[in-house]
# Entry
Amino acid sequence: MSHRKRLLSVVLILSFGYVLYGTFLRAFTLNSREQDLSVIFNTIAAVGKFNVVVDPKVRQKMSVTLDRVDPLQALYIVAKLNGLQVKKLAEVKGKDTYAIAPQDVIERGFEQGFTRAKRLRYAKAEDVAQIVSKGLGKEVNIGVEKDPRTNSLVLRGTEEVLNKVEDLIKELDLPVPQVMIDAKVVTVQTTFTRNLGFLWNFGVGKAADGIVTDKTAGSGSIYAITEYQRTRNNSSFYDSPTNARGSNIFSFGDFYRSNFFLNSAFAALETSGITRTLSSPRLLAINGAQAQLRIGDKIVFSGGPSQPPEERDTGTVMDITPRINKDNFITMDINVEQSTARFDRGDFPTITRTNAKTTVQVKDGEEVLVGGLVQENSSPNKIIVPFLVEIPLIKHFFQKKNNQNTSLELVILLTPRVVKQNVAQDTGEISPPPISLGIGGSKGEAPHVGLPEPGGPPSPGGAGPIVVPSARGSPAGPGGDLSDINDIFDGPKPRGPDTAPSAGPAASAPNGAPMPPIPPPRGGLDIPELGL
# Structure
């Protein structure tokens, strides 16, 4: 035995030395200055004892200094530095042949192009096509076409390139987790209006040409002022003294005589109101994708003579971009805007905006509050009678004040939750479903069988050897008897604790001959129960 080990050691040492010696003999040193590539390739091929075929369009020159390198390695180094591809063609009379040319020439002349269709399950074909074109398009010659109808990619290229692209697509076409965002948008608007003071109006009537009737204009458009009161500033409107005086709580009557008309009204009124608006939208967003929420109005206003109408969204505008972290936290980029439009400058609206932009990180299922978006408007208005309003003590009888205050507060509550997804792994293989046999054991458990060595105990973790029942009354362990083949699917029949398995009549083969029972395994082992 020791002689064999020594001989084996000597053989291994000699073999290793032969490999080192062969490598040492093939290593060479190359020095050249401004030499044609074809000459350099032919020199390397002569040293390495292989054939090379160089594209005639390759006419570059280069300087090379390589010390103790393998000829084939030197061939690849020089080719790569000049943007050329090396293609191994065949072995002729014990020598390898290599073609050296640009990549497009190699693909057209030696590599067959293929076309494959790849259907995507989760990613968008447009996004994946852009990544493949930008990521691999500069390195390899690959054609990518997208089919939005079936969400598929049509790939064209060599087999090697297509395999690389398919490996990349497998890494990109993965299910993306989603986030359910429960939003509560609460808008509280408070208004307060106060009117207090005296309002004086007067006018002088004139004669009218033509027929003058009550509340009817004559040809001169001058109305008669007789037994009627003026209730509006426009002298073209009159009403009967018996009608209501509008919304003023306190008012004096009108004083008139002939063509002279005088009106004095005292107003004292306060109005307050609170309006609450609650909306509870629910958004489902893909991880890293933006979800948008618009609550409000769309304002459309005309542009110039050569401009089309423009649109603006007013109200509550919310943009949310969730990102799921590994530690069960969710990072959200939130951009909330509250805006109102006023048409106080002709046809072009004035839009008042309140914006809040932030990035928050919350745990899955926790609530975050975005508030503080408050708009307050105050509109004081004062009507006075000149000169008389400057008289002390009685100046309050010659002025009227109107104050209107509006407060709008926006509160947003956001609760993000990660949506649990059950996505089956697509391995590309079709396997039959498992068959569960009701033999002994408890329900729902898979068979756990260990095969013992001949003559030894059952292996740990196993239940014993597998025994196929072939005759009525064959032993099936303490769980029960298998009377016939139907017991495999119906389950064993129970028996009493003291009842031993009895040998029944032998089962018959299809031709009517009795089927011999299967002998027990060697070693005199008892047949244990098969636990499922």
Q: What stands out?
A: The mean pLDDT is 68. The longest strand covers residues 178-204.
